[in-house]
Amino acid sequence: MRITVKVKPNSSKQEIRLKDNIYNVSLISPPVEGKANRELIELLSDYFNIPKSEVSIISGHKSRTKIVNIEREDLNA
Length: 77
Hints:
Elements: E1 2-8, E2 15-19, E3 22-26, H1 35-48, E4 55-59, E5 65-70
């Protein structure tokens, strides 16, 4: 499944909120050298309880709005 994610880097805490089918994700890492993207993948894998290898950023690598692919088909999220 593909989801739309809006990230907020440099936050004081990690948080995922779902509103209007968009995942708003607060990240602690800065958007430097892919740190925030790696944290996003780790956080989403924990949220959906799947391996990190099943989470990939499809578009928006350098944007706050991203399209993320979740490979697991049996999710009920």
